[in-house]
Amino acid sequence: MIDRETIDKILDATNIVDVVSEFVTLKKSGVNYKGLCPFHDDKTPSFMVSPTKQICKCFSCGEGGTAINFLMKHEQITYPEALRWLAKKYNIEIQEKELTDEEKQEQSDRESMFIVNEWAMNYFKDVLNHDPDGVAIGRQYFRSRGIRDDIVEKFNLGFSLSKRDALDLAAKKAGYKEEFLIKTGLCIKGEKGVYDRYAGRVIFPWFNVSGKVVAFGGRLLDARTKGVQQKYVNSPDSEIYHKERELYGLYQGKKAIAKEDCVYMVEGYTDVIAMHQCGLENVVANSGTALSKHQIKLLRRFTPNIILLYDGDEAGIHAAMRGTDMLLAEGMKVKVLLLPDGDDPDSFSRKHTAAEFKAYIEEHAEDFIEFKTKLTVENVSDPVKRSEAIGGIVKSISVVDDQLLRDEYLTQLSRRLGIKEETLLNSMNGMISHDREEKEKEYNREQAQEAIQREKEGKPMAIGLHTTNEQISQLEEMLMKAIVRDGEKVMYENVATADGGTINLSVAQFIDYDLGSDGLSFSNPVYNKILQEVVAHIGEEDFKSEEYLMRHPDYEVSSVAANLAVDPYQLSKSFQMKEREGGLRQHVEHLVLDFRYFCLKEKVEELKAALKNCKDDYMSIMQELARVDSIYKALAKKLGR
Ligand SMILES: [Zn+2]
Known about the structure:
Blueprint: H1 4-13, H2 16-21, E1 27-29, E2 32-35, E3 47-50, E4 55-58, E5 64-65, H3 67-75, H4 79-89, H5 101-106, H6 109-130, H7 132-144, H8 149-154, E6 158-159, H9 166-173, H10 178-183, E7 187-190, E8 193-196, E9 201-207, E10 213-220, E11 232-234, H11 250-260, E12 263-266, H12 269-278, E13 283-285, H13 293-300, E14 305-311, H14 314-321, H15 324-329, E15 333-339, H16 345-351, H17 354-364, E16 366-367, H18 368-376, H19 383-398, H20 403-417, H21 421-456, H22 468-486, E17 490-496, E18 502-506, H23 507-517, H24 525-537, H25 545-550, H26 555-565, H27 573-579, H28 583-613, H29 618-638
Parallel strand pairs: 12-13, 12-14, 14-15
Antiparallel strand pairs: 1-2, 2-3, 3-4, 4-5, 6-9, 7-8, 9-10, 10-11, 15-16, 17-18
Helix pairs in contact: 3-4, 6-7, 12-16, 18-19, 19-21, 22-24, 22-28, 23-28, 28-29
C-alpha cells in the first residue's frame, strides 16, 4: 500500500486539467474548462473540468469525480495504479515494496499482459541496440530507410532475432509466464512447441492513448519480402488490444493534434514515422481498414478536423472514399489530399521540409464533398451513372449533423453541378426521413424485445416504484452528501453540555447524535465508517471533511466521498445558493427527520410481520412495536404526513 504521505504528495502535485487534457482537448470556459465527454457519445462539449475544485463532471451522462476517479474509469485501472500513473507524470517517487508471490498472483490478467508487453518492447529495443545481429540487421535496416536514431528511440522501434524462440526463452528466464506470452500474442503455441510471432522482423510497438504498450507490428526486412510470408504481422486482438479501437501514432501525436486542431490520417507506420521525422507530429494511421466508430470518437476528442493523406493511385483513392460517411456522421470536418506522382506521405516528407509539406496541404487539400463530386460525377456523361453518383454525394451530405453545414454543402453542390438546389434538397430530405424511420423501427424493435425479456424474467414493467427501502437509501445518500461536503461546519453554537460547559455542534456530530438516540445507523457500512471518522476528527485545526475524505488511503472511502462531493449542480453556484436558501441547518434537520421517519416506518413494518409469525415472544414484540410506533406517529405528525 502507498502511504498517506506519498498520496498527499501526489495529489498536491496533481492538476486535473493536465490529467484530463491527456485524453480530451479542453477549452477554457469561464473559470472552468470544457471538452467532449470521453464516457458517452458526446457531440457537444458537456464535460466540465473545474481547476478550483479539482473535479470533473459530465453534465450529460453524469460521469466524473477527482483526477483519480477519472483515471480509474477511463483507463480501467485500480486506485493504486491511478496513483502510480500520477506519480509517474509528476515525477514523484514511490517506494515500491517487493511483491510477494501471493500479491503477484493477484495482479489481474490485463496488468500481467501490459507488464509482459512493456518488458518485450524493452527487450526488442535492447536487441536492436546491443545484440550483434540486431545491430547488423535491424539497426542497418532503419538506417538504410533513412530513419534517424532519435526517431527510432521516440517510437521505441526494435528488432526480433530470427531464432524462432529467442524472445520466448528470454522472457521465461526473466520470470514471465508462458500464459501471458501467448495471450498477448508475442508467442504462438504450435505443434512443435512455443515460438516467437515476430522472429526476424523489425518491431513497431503500438501504444494506447495513455502510453501503454498494447500490441506490436512486425515487418519483414526488404530482402526477404519475396515469397509466401506476410510482409507485416500484427498482434492478434486480445484483452488489452482491439484493432478497431487503436490508432498508431495517437500517443506520440496527441499533443500536436490538439495544438494544431487537426489530424492527418495516413496508411502505414512508416508514413507516421517519416512525418514525425520531417517535423509534422499531428498524424495517425490505422491498420489498413476503414476507420471504426471507436477510432473516430477517439480522434474527435482531440480535434474535429481530419485530413486524409494518401497516395494518388487507385488504392489511395479507394482508401480515401472508404468510411468517410461515418466520419461526417460523427461530426468530423473531412478533407482529402492525394499526393502527386506516386508519392506517399513517407516519400513526400523526405523530399520536403515541414513548412513546405504544410503549405502544400493547405493549398491542395479539398473538402471531402468537393473531392467526391469531382471524382464521381464530373466527366461522367452516362445519365444513369451520373444520377447514381449524385445520389451518393447527397447521401454523404445527408449524414452531416450540423444543419448549417449541410445547407452550405448543398448550395455548393447545386452551383457546381448546375442542378436546382430544391431538387437536391428534396432528395436529401427523403434520405434523412428514410434514415429516421429506419432508426425508429430499430428502436421500437429493441424496446419490444426488452419488454419481452422483462416479462420472461418476471420483472415489473413499470420502473420507479418508491419503496420504503428506496426512500431510505436515497436519504442516506443525501445525508452522506451533507457529511462529506459540510461535515465540519457548525450547525448549532454554544450548546450546553451535561458538565455545564458549552460546545459547537457540527453537521456530522448532529447527525451522529440524532441517529444514535434512536439506535439507527446507515445500511451502507462505508457510510457509518465515514461518519465515525469525520466525527473523530472534528475539532482538529483546519479539518475539512471533503478534503480529508477525498484523500483517504482506503479507496472505498475516497471514492464514496468523490462521488458525493460532485454532482451536476456542484459546479453551479446558483444551485448551491438555492439548495441552501433555507440554510444548512434546516436542510440537515429536515433530512435527519425524514430519514428517521422512513427507518421507523420500516421497523414498524418489520415488527408487524414478526408479530404474525411469532410463537412465544409475543409480549416483548408488542411492547417494542408500541414504543416504535408512538415515536413513528409523533414524527409523522411533526412532518405533516
Ligand atoms: Zn458523458
